[in-house]
Write a structure and sequence with these properties.
It is a single chain. The chain is mainly alpha-helical. It folds into 2 domains: 56 residues, no CATH class; 35 residues, no CATH class. Helices cover 56% and strands 7% of the residues. It contains 5 helices and 2 strands. Strands 1-2 form a two-stranded antiparallel sheet. The radius of gyration is 33 Å and the shape is elongated.
Length: 117
């Protein structure tokens, strides 16, 4: 698309949006809603309530915010100490490359005996 064609397209969109904005601006319903919002905000400010508290007063039967679902507790850290190399390894799961290497080299039962804590 050429720059001139793009310019004319954007210009036409702008004209449509301006016409829609003018139409909304002259609508009585918009003015009533804006007055309501302004009055409600003034009342909240006058009595020292937040928006959330004000809405809870107006609609007390609305459900409160749902607490986020609890995530599972973090895994316990396990420390292994290789008696052959004196290397200490801290892992929170069994899917560690060094730990897998030790299990392959020395056997799983032997490596389980290396747990420090």
């Amino acid at each position: 698309m050429s720059v001139v064609a793009e310019y004319r397209s954007v210009e036409a969109e702008l004209a449509n949006l301006q016409a829609k904005l003018y139409q909304l601006g002259t609508d009585d319903r918009l003015q009533r809603e804006l007055d309501l919002v302004k009055g409600f905000s003034e009342l909240l400010e006058k009595y020292g309530f937040s928006l959330k508290e004000g809405l809870r007063i107006v609609h007390p039967d609305q459900p409160k915010e749902v607490e986020p679902k609890k995530t599972r507790k973090p895994r316990r850290e396990v420390v292994y100490k290789n008696p052959h190399t004196l290397e200490e390894l801290r892992v929170k799961g069994g899917n560690n490359a060094v730990l897998r290497g030790w299990r392959g080299q020395y056997g799983s039962d032997t490596v389980k005996g290396w747990i420090v804590n």
